[in-house]
Amino acid sequence: MDKVERLQSLNEPKIILVGDSNLAFGIRSEMLEKEFNMQVVNLGFHGSLRNRLQENVAKLNINTGDIVIICHSSYGDDEGVVDYKLLLTTFEWHKELWKIASIEDYIGMLSAIPSYLISAYKHKILGTGNKPSSGCYSRDAFNKYGDNIFSEIDKETRFVFKEGSLDKYPAPISDACVNRINELNEYVIEKGARLLIGEFPIADGEYTPDHSAFYDFETELKNRIECSVISSVSDYFFDYTYFYNTILHLTED
């Protein structure tokens, strides 16, 4: 878990970016670092781990002077995890991560153990386990900040948008998510740090919902979240040509 190791190694004031994989693709942390003269760690994880877990990872090392910026692609979560097998694989022998799991997470991971063990056994038999992978999700595809840089190499892959691709955006904002973020805001303030909300990339083209839906979403978010929303959706509409392999992953362009 290179991202967690970087987070825990930085004890000076830093910028902590929290969110799913939309953060890993398209963010240029080095530019942020130079602009604000602060170290940056990009904690953008797989979206199947969901918001609560991503926020809890940030809590592993929040100190005085830190700036924590949440950039979720959805605020409609019910606090659950979509893929407990992935969560179990992510945690494995990283003991520092187990303390951020909830009782529900432990129950979910217990149910995923049979599937996890079958996969592990297959990898062992086939000799495919614990080997470097390739492609945009490999370890080498990320720089030291946690940014994905693979699209610099892969100039051909582009997501093909079609009718229905963006129907679930923007997602309704849930009470569970609002309450949890407001509690996180109190925690961050107690640590002498500051919590902020940033927007997520919005693919803008033929199949995109009316822009008014996103502006209404932003207004509701500002009214319900107790920390500052520092960006506007008007700055986050990007043409389809800038999206790499999903509706949320931007290219380096």
Architecture overview:
This protein has 253 residues and is an alpha/beta fold. The chain has a domain at 2-79 and 145-242: 3-Layer(aba) Sandwich (Rossmann fold), CATH 3.40.50. The protein is built from 9 helices and 7 strands; from the N terminus they run H-E-H-H-E-H-E-H-H-H-H-E-E-H-E-E. The protein has a 5-stranded parallel beta sheet with strand order 2-1-3-4-6, sandwiched between helices. Strands 5-7 form a two-stranded parallel sheet. Helix 5 (84-91) packs across helix 7 (103-126). The two termini are 27 Å apart. The model has no long low-confidence stretch (mean pLDDT 89).
Radius of gyration: 18 Å
Distance between the termini: 27 Å
Largest β-sheet summary: 5 strands, parallel
The number of E-state strands comes to 7
Proportion of residues in helical segments: 25-40%
Structure characteristics:
single chain; 253 residues; alpha/beta; Rossmann fold; two-stranded parallel sheet; 7 strands; 38% helix; globular
What's the SSE blueprint?
Blueprint: H1 2-9, E1 14-18, H2 21-24, H3 29-36, E2 39-42, H4 50-58, E3 67-70, H5 84-91, H6 95-98, H7 103-126, H8 175-190, E4 194-197, E5 202-204, H9 211-224, E6 228-229, E7 237-239
Parallel strand pairs: 1-2, 1-3, 3-4, 4-6, 5-7
Helix pairs in contact: 5-7
